[in-house]
Amino acid sequence: MDPVLHVISKNGMFLFRFNNGEFGSKWCGIWKADQKYFDYFAFKFGEEFLSEANFKKFSFYNSQFSTLLFETVKGKVIEEVKCYDDSVLVSVTPNFDSKVTLEVGINLRKRDENYQKGKRYNLTEIKNGIKAEFNNKSAYVYFLNGKFNKEEYYGIHSPGLYSIKRGLTSYLDKGEPQNKYVPGEITFELKANETYEVLFSIREMDFDSIYKLIKNSIKYAEEYGQIIKSESKKFNLDTIDKDLLMDSIDAIYSYTNFNEVEFYAGFPYFNQFWLRDALMVLPSFLSIGNFAFVKKILLKIANEINENGLPNIINGTLYPKDVLGLFLIDLYEYFKYTADTSLINLISNKKEDIIKLCSKWMNNGFIHDKGNETWMDSIDREFSVEIQAIWAKALQGFYSIFKDQTAKEMSQTLKNSLNSLFKEDYLMDQKNKDINSANQIFALYFDVVDSDKKEKIIKNIENNLLSEFGVLSVSKNDKIFNFNGYQTGAIWPFLTEMFAAVAFENGRYELGKKLLLILKDQNDNAQCSSRINEIFQPDGIPKGCPSQAWSISLIPFIIERNILGIDINLPEREIIVKKREGITAKKDISADGKRIDIDIKNGKVKSNIGILELSDKFILEL
User: Fold this and answer.
1) CA 309 to chain centre
2) Are strands 594-601 and 585-591 parallel, antiparallel or unpaired?
3) Cα–Cα distance measured from residue 384 to residue 428, given in angstroms and rounded to the nearest whole number
4) What confidence tens digit (pLDDT) does each residue in 7-37 have?
5) Side-chain-side CA neighbours of residue 534 (13 Å)
6) Which of 91, 270, 398, 460 could form a disulfide with 265 if both were Cys (CB 3.0 to 4.6 A apart)?
7) Boundary of a domain, candidates 541, 563, 585
8) Do residues 464 and 572 both lie within one domain?
């Protein structure tokens, strides 16, 4: 089935829309992070609107560029949409002469707001466009040709009814009423094959800036496409589908606001800076060589550390037990890739507070999470297995950086406690709670499970939690399994990614390839073009957020670390490449200020730097 939705985005600016041209959800429209600006735009050629009724074809090129083809009574119309930092450019080109009318729906609101009684805008006609202002926010519509006819209309509409009627359920919209404001209409005449451009912006722009964006729109789109292709070529292997790899790298750019140093958990719902999601994905930025952004975002997150740890959302009030641990894991990974002590030195003044906080959380050898303090925030859990895994790994890295003996001892204690959760062939979900859940994957992914238990746990996950559409959150044979459960039954693609990493890391190459195929054939493009949903029902129906960051963005790091076995350790002046039989690949990496070529074939490694071969690995000496 073809995807029905798409997102185009850049640095927090995004447009969410149906692939047939409709804006059939309160989440549809043009946003900047969690602030909405435009509900919709609608072009009318003669007496016929471009709509679902005359839509013919959708093309998604990358996260900044899409095209729709419509066939009206008079002829064909091509609509191209391009996303910039603070604006969205829409171009229409008919193959016939026509009078054209543009209607724009404006709705300045925060993400959690619905209908507001008495909401009114201050409308101003400006040079080359119009400006609508409400509550110190402004939406601009710029057009270089045509005439604006002011005829303000205020009303109520429920765009979500469109989604509901098509069976997309409350996951996409519950149909809440929304304010409708139409400032008037823009009219213009078009000759056959002429193009008309309209710029929807969140900031005031002069003529030169508008003209430059319009004139160079194709150039900008092509340049971005080349960036994605170039980044993808750094991962040259036949184990993973090239389209999935390109979608993954494109997604990483899509969810990132490089200007504000933010990372969004997903579009359109999770259009906020979620720290947990960002920290899960951040190692992929290291794998594509963007060390500068990793440093910036780690510094920004470090400033949020306080006596409670780290919040889940920037400036949030909920402090889960896993976020600070994930931060420490990424800090160590960054240090290994760069040997950059400046970041370590800046954070070192917090190290005693971190150890004290961790000690405070410890209870009989376990980190004591309770309530909704994990990624499974819809379930009341306590002494959760993935919390122990994350902190065992985090404190291990903390010791490697700071040589803190307390951290080393707590890491070993947590590792022992975690392994005590082993029962026959799986790790229990929580201390004293016998649930066979996918959270045990964290223990394998972060490599804090005793070696003699790994194979049994992997087989258990394969037999009891893996479906044809991915990894279930809870075993289908467990007493709490619920087919409709959000975190007690649903498939989470990010768990499928992590399990693929585990499979490759432990020599289960065929299982790893199978999991990557599931991501490509069953998850990618299922509902949103070139993206993967937050969750899937056990029968494969996509649900939740249509475009979720961590569902697709872990892939570059998994390729480098787990499929190719490459582990960069710049402080030790070496790169480890584990022996991988049956893997043929080339990987270009940046280390120590130079490019290093790694060629893997038939269990052998070639490189442009010196290599020492051992029984189970190669050491590339920097």
Assistant:
1) 23
2) antiparallel
3) 9
4) 999 999 999 999 999 999 999 999 999 999 9
5) 17
6) 270
7) 563
8) no
What is the gyration radius of the CA atoms in the chain, in angstroms? 26
239 phi/psi in degrees, rounded to 5? -75, -30
At residue 331, what is the residue type? Answer: L
Please check whether residues 578 and 429 belong to one and the same domain: no
Angle value at C-alpha 548, between 546 and 551, nearest 5 degrees = 120
Q: Does residue 45 lie within any of the structural domains?
A: yes
Residue 507 tokens, joined: 């020599």
**Closest to 562 (Cα-Cα) out of 447, 417, 456, 448:** 447
Q: 3-state DSSP: the chain helix, strand, coil percent, rounded to 5?
A: 35, 30, 35
Burial class (CB in 10 A: 0-12, 13-18, 19+), 477: exposed
Which tens digit of pLDDT belongs to each residue from 211-229? 999 999 888 888 999 999 9
For residues 462 and 493, membership in a common domain is answered with yes
**Are residues 40 and 173 both part of a single domain?**
yes
Distance CA 83, CA 91 (A): 12
CATH assignment of the domain containing 123: 2.70.98.40
Which residue from 612, 568, 615, 603 is spatially nearest to 588, judged by alpha carbons? 568
DSSP 326: H
pLDDT at residue 169, as a whole number: 67
Give the domain extent around 170: 5-203
Same domain, 137 and 242: no
Q: 607 pairs with which residues across the strands?
A: 598
Residue 554 pLDDT greater than 90, yes or no: yes
Region of 128 on the Ramachandran plot (φ > 0 left; ψ -120 to 50 alpha; else beta): left
Last residue of a domain, one of 184, 203, 222: 203
- Number of compact structural domains in the chain: 3
| β-bridge partners, 230 | none
Q: Can you tell me which residue has the tokens 């292997």?
A: 237
**Contact between residue 533 and residue 545 where contact means Cβ atoms under 8 Å apart:** yes
The mean pLDDT of 542-560, rounded to a whole number, is 96
Six-digit token pair at 35? 């602030």
